[in-house]
Design brief:
Elements (H helix, E strand, L loop, with lengths): L16 E3 L10 E6 L9 H14 L8 E5 L3 H13 L2 E7 L4 H9 L3 E5 L8 H14 L5 E3 L6 H5 L2 H10 L6 E5 L4 H13 L4 E7 L34 E5 L1 H15 L5 H17 L4 E6 L10 H4 L2
Parallel strand pairs: 2-10, 3-4, 3-6, 4-5, 7-8, 7-10, 8-9
Antiparallel strand pairs: 1-2
């Protein structure tokens, strides 16, 4: 195939898998992590954006020149803006000052229009997320607009099936546990279902902010782990495929993200820090000879202006 026929969208996926070395104790299972920051926009969300938009095309829900609308903490918005730019659609993001300014700038660089919903002192809360959802729903009622409605969009999960396949192949079929944070829950569902195809004994551990541990049955609260913990049960949540739910504090997630950069050379965001904190717990529980897998969700370049790295 000539290079002229290769779309930027075809570079999504097939990301490297790395083994964490410095931060994993000697008496623990090994931890393998998919480096999803190697995707075109620097996050795993490129996978779901491609699946969602291609699904809408197949169903005739969008047409050239149309506008796709979605609420976003920024990472999904960047990926949707990227795919829209490559396919000739407009993208309108509903965003908030609770999330990093780098994300806003990147969405705009891809041609997105951004509407803001103001937060309460930059706290991520159920109230904020639900207001963002309703704002995006309202905007989508305009002519030639389509709301991708990520929380209720089944195509999003399908975008992560290949991620599970890649984890299995790159680990050479050695996976006892998968650990991952929950937002819409599409990525944890998609990867888990793929892994279970190969081995129905693989255990999945969901991760949520300790300050807003609604999946664990606790009250909704506020936290500062961008991209996860929406403050209510995701409508498509499938608890039956999850072995256990773990909680991680914002402070511990940020501290681990900083350690990853300094000790492993992995520059990532706070949700990745949460993934690794939880993965270390499971690795210690399983012990030597076992394999825990998780995800480096996105690049730390998106969080330069936030307390995650500004407080260094």
């Amino acid at each position: 195939m000539s290079s002229g026929n290769i779309s930027i969208r075809n570079t999504i996926g097939n990301t490297p898998m790395i083994e964490l070395k410095k931060i994993v104790p000697a008496n623990s299972a090994r931890i393998l992590a998919k480096l999803e920051s190697a995707n075109p926009t620097g996050s795993m969300k490129d996978r779901m954006a491609k699946a969602v938009i291609e699904g809408a095309e197949r169903k005739g829900l969008i047409k050239q020149g149309g506008t796709i609308v979605e609420y976003t903490a920024g990472t999904t918005g960047i990926s949707l803006a990227f795919v829209c730019a490559s396919l000739g659609y407009n993208f309108h993001a509903v965003f908030s000052d609770a999330f990093s300014n780098e994300k806003r700038i990147t969405m705009k660089a891809f041609g997105a229009t951004v509407t803001d919903v103001l937060s309460d002192n930059k706290k991520i809360t159920e109230k904020l997320i639900k207001e963002m959802i309703e704002t995006s729903r309202g905007l989508s009622e305009q002519d030639n607009h389509w709301w991708s409605d990520q929380l209720n969009n089944h195509d999003a999960e399908k975008g992560y099936y290949p991620l599970g396949d890649e984890i299995w192949e790159q680990s050479e079929g050695s996976v006892e546990a998968f650990v991952h944070t929950v937002s819409t829950a599409h990525s944890i569902h998609g990867v888990t279902k793929s892994l279970l195809k190969y081995n129905n004994k693989v255990e999945t551990f969901a991760v949520e902010p300790d300050e807003s541990a609604v999946l664990s049955g606790r009250p909704s609260g506020s936290h500062k782990i961008e991209g996860i913990g929406i403050g209510f049960i995701p409508p498509l949540w499938q608890p039956e495929i999850v072995t256990e739910i773990l909680t991680v504090t914002t402070e511990d997630a940020m501290s681990m993200a900083r350690r990853l950069a300094k000790e492993e050379g992995i520059f990532a965001g706070t949700s990745t820090g949460a993934n690794i904190v939880a993965a270390l717990r499971i690795a210690e529980r399983l012990g030597p000879g076992k394999t825990v897998t998780t995800i480096i969700v996105d690049s730390g370049l998106r969080y330069i202006s936030t307390p995650l790295y500004q407080l260094l």
